[in-house]
Amino acid sequence: xxxxxxxxxxxxxxxxxxxxxxxxxxxxxxxxxxxxxxxxxxxxxxxxxxxxxxxxxxxxxxxxxxxxxxxxxxxxxxxxxxxxxxxxxxxxxxxxxxxxxxxxxxxxxxxxxxxxxxxxxxxxxxxxxxxxxxxxxxxxxxxxxxxxxxxxxxxxxxxxxxxxxxxxxxxxxxxxxxxxxxxxxxxxxxxxxxxxxxxxxxxxxxxxxxxxxxxxxxxxxxxxxxxxxxxxxxxxxxxxxxxxxxxxxxxxxxxxxxxxxxxxxxxxxxxxxxxxxxxxxxxxxxxxxxxxxxxxxxxxxxxxxxxxxxxxxxxxxxxxxxxxxxxxxxxxxxxxxxxxxxxxxxxxxxxxxxxxxxxxxxxxxxxxxxxxxxxxxxxxxxxxxxxxxxxxxxxxxxxxxxxxxxxxx
Length: 409
Known about the structure:
Blueprint: H1 2-22, H2 29-67, H3 70-85, H4 94-107, H5 111-126, H6 137-148, H7 155-163, H8 173-194, H9 202-223, H10 227-255, H11 260-276, H12 279-295, H13 297-311, H14 322-327, H15 332-346, H16 351-362, H17 366-376, H18 385-408
Helix pairs in contact: 1-12, 2-7, 2-10, 2-11, 2-12, 3-4, 4-5, 5-6, 5-17, 6-8, 6-17, 6-18, 8-16, 8-18, 12-15, 15-16, 16-18
C-alpha cells in the first residue's frame, strides 16, 4: 500500500509538471520541484531533532508510570468493562495490561511509541485465538479502538506546532479532544453492533453513560464561551493537563519508591530506539509531498474539491486541510508530512493548518495499523475490522472540521 502511495505521489507530480511545461509553457516548475526536494529533506532533519526529544521524554515518563503501578491500576479499573467487551479474554490476562499501556501511549499522542506496545498486545491476544488466519472479536475490538486513537494529550502535534513557530502550540488541545472522542465513540459503537455486544449491560451502560454525560456537559459549558475564551481555555487546559500528568507520574513513582531517574532513563532509551528508525520514512514522505505541491498537482485537486464544496453552498476554508485527511488512513508519515506542509504553506496558526492538526490527532492510520498488527501474527481474514475502523475515521474527520469552525471559525 505504501509503495503504491509513494510512487503515486511522484508519478502524479511528474504528470502535472509535464502538463504545466507542455501546455502552459511554464518551465519553472522543474527547478521548483528540485528545490522542494532539498528543502523538504532539510525540514525532515529539523523535525526529527525535536521528535527525538519528544518521544524520548514521554516514554521515559511512561516507564515511571508503569513501574509505579499506574498502568496496572488502570487495567484493574477497566477490568470489568474489558470482561464484557472482550469476553474471550480471561481476567488478569497479560494482554489487558499491554492494551492499557497501548491506550496510554495513544492518549499521549505517541503513535510511534504505541505501535511496538500494540504489537505485543496483538500477539498476546493471538494466544487466545483458535484460528491462525482469522481475526478474533477481541483482536478486532482492540484494533478498531487503536485505529480510532483516543488522544487526550497530543504531545507530538504540540511539538510539530512548536517546531513550526506557533506562539501557543497547545491551542488545538480541545478541538482534538472533542474530535478524537467522536472518532472513538463511532468506532466503539460500530464494533459493538457488529459483534452484538450487550451495550445495555449495567457496567457497559455505566461507562458509556458517564462518558457521554461528561462529554455532553463539557460541550454545553464550551457552548457558553466566546471564540476568544475557547482558545484561552484550550491553551490553559492543554498546558495544565500536560504538566499535571508529569507530576502525577513522578509523585506516584516516589510514593512507590521507584527509582524515578533510573526508570526515566530506561524508558528514554527505548524512546531513542523507537525514534531513530523514523528519519528515512519522514524524509521519503516529506519529499514526496513537497514535490507534489511544487508540481501544482495538489493545488489542482484541491481547486476541484473547493469548486464542488462551493457549488453546494458550503464554506471552503477547510478544503486546504483535506490532504491530511485523505492520506491519514493509509500512512501516518504521509499525513504527518501533509500536516507539516500545510503549516508551512499557509502558516502554523492558519485555519487549514489548525484543521489539519486536529484531523491528525483525531484518528489513526487504519490501513497501516491493519497491515502491521494483523501482518505480524499472520491474520488474513480481517472480517469487519476495516469497515468499523473507516467509520471511526470518517467520524473523526467530520468532527475535526466542525469543531474547528466552532473554535476558530
